[in-house]
Amino acid sequence: SYRTSQMADVDAAVLAIIDQQKRVLICKRADHLRTHPGEACLPGGKREEGDATIVDTALRESHEEIGLPPSKIAVQYELGCISSLAGIWVHPIVGTVADEPELSINTDEVAIAEWIPLEAFLKNEYHWNKLYGAYNVHGFDLPQLHVFGLTANICILVAIRELKMRPEFDLNPEMTTEIMRNMEPEEILDRFYAYYYENVRPAKESREAAKI
């Protein structure tokens, strides 16, 4: 199941924070950072020795980056790992907040944080897509932020799960809007991960092995 997928090479986590209005908190990385400067992201980072679980990683990083204490977040579930374009396997954790929390942005890491309606990540209006072999890179040119790659993929999956809706665009070559029309949202998520692990992961691993 996509909710219980555990992988030995998970080394990072991100936290998708959902409020009562079904919005997700998206950050923009500081422009001076060495990696991915100015890009949209979810709060998160690499696992450290003191993190007992990958959930602890997501909560710790969120506290460090946006000043949101773990006590304010109700962790709901975990989605299966997906890879960044840099080859890091990331575990998405989904948590909710009762009220829109007061944030304390760490400007060393984060420039701004914006609440984006989850539904925006299922709409054609803002969406673009590029196919790299078996891998679909999704992007959204939103009024607030440009979101693409790993962050966009995670937001799509969370939106499908939270809103129980289908995307208005093709998810991957085997999951077109025509095919998804007859699928329940739960099945779409399962099929996404089945395709991802069968096609995208082996392709990434073979490319990484070739570099060694």
What features would you highlight for this structure?
212 residues, alpha+beta, five-stranded mixed β-sheet, three-stranded antiparallel β-sheet, 4 helices, 11 strands, globular
Question: What is this entry, summarized?
Answer:
The chain is an alpha+beta fold. The chain has 4 helices and 11 strands; from the N terminus they run ββββαβββββββααα.
The parts where pLDDT drops under 50 for at least 5 residues are 1-8, 207-212
Kindly state the number of beta strands.
11
The main sheet comes to: 5 strands, mixed
* Share of residues in strands: 25-35%
- The radius of gyration computed from the alpha-carbon positions, rounded to a whole number of angstroms, is 16 Å
Query: Distance N terminus to C terminus?
Result: 32 Å
Describe the structure.
There is one protein chain. The chain contains 4 helices and 11 strands; from the N terminus they run ββββαβββββββααα. It has helices spanning 54-66, 149-163, 177-180, 185-211; strands spanning 12-18, 23-29, 40-41, 44-46, 74-78, 82-83, 89-96, 110-117, 127-132, 135-141, 146-148. The strands form 3 sheets. Strands 1, 4, 5, 6 and 7 form a 5-stranded mixed beta sheet that branches. The protein has 212 residues and is of the alpha+beta class. Strand 10 (135-141) and strand 11 (146-148) form a beta hairpin. The protein is globular and about 45 Å long.
Outline the secondary-structure elements.
Layout: E1 12-18, E2 23-29, E3 40-41, E4 44-46, H1 54-66, E5 74-78, E6 82-83, E7 89-96, E8 110-117, E9 127-132, E10 135-141, E11 146-148, H2 149-163, H3 177-180, H4 185-211
Parallel strand pairs: 1-7
Antiparallel strand pairs: 1-4, 2-3, 2-8, 5-7, 6-7, 9-10, 10-11
Keywords: Hydrolase, Magnesium, Manganese, Metal-binding
Cofactor: Mn(2+); Mg(2+)
GO molecular function, one term: metal ion binding
